[in-house]
Design a protein that fits this description.
- The complex is a heterodimer of chains A (258) and B (150).
- Chain A is built from ten helices and three strands.
- Chain A has 258 residues and is mostly helical.
- Chain A folds into two domains: 7-116, no CATH class; 122-257, no CATH class.
- In chain A, helix 1 (7-26) runs parallel beside helix 4 (104-116) and helix 7 packs antiparallel against helix 8 (198-206).
- Chain A starts with 6 loop residues before the first helix and ends with a helix.
- Chain B has one domain.
- Chain B starts with a helix and ends in a 10-residue tail after the last helix.
- The chains are: A mainly alpha (258), B mainly alpha (150).
- At the A-B interface, helix 2, helix 3, helix 5, helix 8 and helix 9 of A face helix 1, helix 4, helix 5 and helix 6 of B.
Amino acid sequence: MEEKISLGDYQKLLNTAIDLGHFLLEAGAETYRVEESIQRVLYAYGIKHVDVFAITNSITVTITMADDTCFTRLRRIYSRGTNYQMIEDLNNLSRYICIYRPPVEEFRQRLKEIYHKKGYPFWMMVVAFAGVGFSFTLFFGGNLRDALVATFAGALIRVVIQGMERVHTNGFFINLINSLLVTLIALLAVRYQIADHSDRIIIGTLMSLVPGVAVTNAMRDIIAGDLVAGTMKGLEALLVALALALGTGMALVVMGGL
Amino acid sequence: MELMMPCLYAFLACIAFSIVYHVGWKRIPLTCLGGALGWLVYLLLDFPSDVPKYFIATVVISVYSEIMARVCKVPVTLFLTTAVLPLVPGGGMYYTMEYCVRGETSLFMETGLHTLALAGAIALGIMTVSSLVRMWKVMKAPKLFLKKRY
């Protein structure tokens, strides 16, 4: 297939490919996956050289054509979460593109569809957070009464997170407040004999805030050789853990002194 | 029964976490099976120390995730991050902090170091399997990143 692609099309292609990388990074993919996806997609369209540099909050792509024309595009990424459904869909999309090489317009259309696909609704996230509290409290050896308090606390922290994210609070403060809240609930529940083990409630409920994805991705990035991105993610995980410890510690001190 | 209940709780916890991480409906059963499997391996192993048990359980989970990712054609992290969560030493972290607040220095050091060792064991487990798989991938696939300029 040797159809001529105009320069404008190359720019459109570059923009679409960097969108793909952007959504991947926002959904919590590893850095090497972002770089590799962009490269594979662009090479599939017959570009001679593709250079990609991605870290946790920015992507830079330069494409070089056979006649030495080149374009560079930088994209800054602000928000990050974890959305495996989206990573899976984007992964399938880039695989599809590498095999069939559809027109750029179709590529963009499919990307748009994936981006606007609805995830789980908010109430379901609340239920999931409650479920994490419930099952991890039982897992760590709490009894049923502990688990019920943890269910309530888990649902509450999801609601608090939602409220705080609406006013763009930073992650450190969100985790601090949430761990403070959970510890207070657990200690009060034990004081008024609603539950029996405050430690198990706290551990179980705070599992939903533990930075498991950040740690795993940090390690996978470091293995793949992306030391900058890996270190950034590792630091982020460390800060979250620190915030959780500080919040819990503060509540323990306050309640111990009452 | 003693083995069953913790594995069931791990399974339930993984279901809840799958929803938190927006894992698609179709993938949830396999993901949670990984979590339950990891904890079962941990419980079945009989070593005096926790650290090698954590290491082996993580290796089992990583291998499971790599296989399942290839079967379902989805990224490995989807299975790995969710299934490894029951192993996260949340209890150790909490007690370390509690001893710190109470000022019990020797217990704080002891628990802290143990927790760190457990976290290290998990990291090492994931790292070993991922590195081996990466080596195999590079041997098999054309080298995308080492494309010659001229």
